[in-house]
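Thread: quick sanity check before group meeting

JM: Hey all, I'm pulling together slides for Thursday and realized we never actually wrote out the predicted structure for the chain we discussed last week. Dropping the sequence here so it's in one place. If anyone has concerns about the input, flag it before I start.
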Amino acid sequence: MFKALAVAGLAAIGWAAAGSAQAAVTVIGGGLAEACSKAALAGENDVKFQDLCTQALETEFMNARDRAGTYVNRGVLKLRRAAYPAARKDFDKAMKIKPDMGEAYVNRGATLIGQRDYAASLTDINRGLELGVGEPAKAYYNRALAHEGLDDMKSAYYDYQKAVAISPDWAAPREQLTRFSVSRR
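JM (edit): ok, ran it. Output follows.
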């Protein structure tokens, strides 16, 4: 059995209100941890789904990857409700269990974007990309938000472009690119 790892994105920044960037991996095996991951996959944000994750963590036997993935999924559910410190704690727990889980870093970066700590978010998102994530387009989208928060419009533009190149059917980065005009000097 493996757990879903959701990569959350933020459009918590007023000028970047393009919706969230969330992705997850399919879960096999049943149980509360699977219900938790399905909620993360489905974009749920009701606290009752977070409680399913907590029950899974407290009662189900899981290998390290599944336990870390369940912390990531619970963190994603908290992130969707803008509970940034609580979500960050879950991503930190996931990293302690599985330090090579890129999704935990990218999601922690998303919490930092929500808290407007853009420089720190770049460190986490870059580490997540180095480790590898299931949906890198969403990591590039989050990184673009962080660059915009730091007024680095050129880097933001290139990251939105990268997100579109990886996931051309995803509307959020395409919509962000419409705000840019490019000129040669």
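AS: nice. The mean pLDDT is 86. The domain at 14-134 is CATH 1.25.40.10 (Serine Threonine Protein Phosphatase 5, Tetratricopeptide repeat).
JM: adding both to the slides.
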